[in-house]
Amino acid sequence: MARRVTYLICLLVVTCCLSLTLPCSAQAPSLAYRCTVSAPSPNVINAWRKVIIKHIDFDGPIHLSKSDVAQIIKEANQKKLLNANDPDWIEQFIVNNLRDAWLTRGYFKVNATSQARSLGGNSGEERFLVSAHVEEGLQYHLKNMRILGDSAIPEAELRAAVSLQDEEICNEGLIHRGIDELTKLYDSKGYMDFTVGADTQLDDDLRPGISLVLNLDLQKQYRIGNVDIAGLDPKLEARLRAIVRPGEIYLPYAVADFFEQNKSKLPSGLNPWKAMHVHFNGKDGIIDLVFEFRICP
Q1: Is residue 234 in some structural domain?
Q2: Do 205 and 254 fall into the same domain?
Q3: What is the pLDDT of residues 18-60, one digit of tens each?
């Protein structure tokens, strides 16, 4: 009996070792891959409580409308807390939103602080009284904007991507959104390593203004090299190959559109982005693509 148990244990060890060396096509899916997120225990779920803020008391006059303050409260009330004594939650839920609200209105030197006092609650929610202090500073307008760098796109098109005009209130949110739009624009031209550096100069004269300089760094323009596709219906594969032709500029949004338009036709239960493997050759500006739609048994 002891020999039989020893034999079974050795057989199990050998089998496990072999499974680790087999290729993906012959290997069973690992539980760690299939279950990347474990469900929280019921006790943890029940510990989370909803935030209820009725009002924010400011200790001085502010240039923020009641509807804007109401929106900040609404966003905070959509959050949940695990520990009301954690000081980080007031910074995350209230102070950051207050600061962003003033930044979008041109108050680039705003400083906001806030405190919250618990008014009690129950197992599902907790009510708070919030007081805030805001030093607004000056409100700035955009004096001028320059876009510098070796550009492959006409300046008028670049300016259109940043929807902020001279003499308008300098909305920091629009600046960040404009940088995102510029990044998408250059991504669509194959500049996958494109970056934008933003420099600002504040002028506190009679009409406070900001001079904004956007420095474009295009770097390499990538073109498609080798393309390998496995596990797709021939007609669907032909459609995919039509948008990832070797020698053409790599357009990630075209691939995203393909995944979205054909998601019902792709292998069930497979995340297409996990089936796609991109290999960058930065030296030559080449991207090799591998699409592995075969599901391991």
Answers
A1: yes
A2: no
A3: 333 333 333 323 222 332 233 444 444 456 778 888 889 999 9
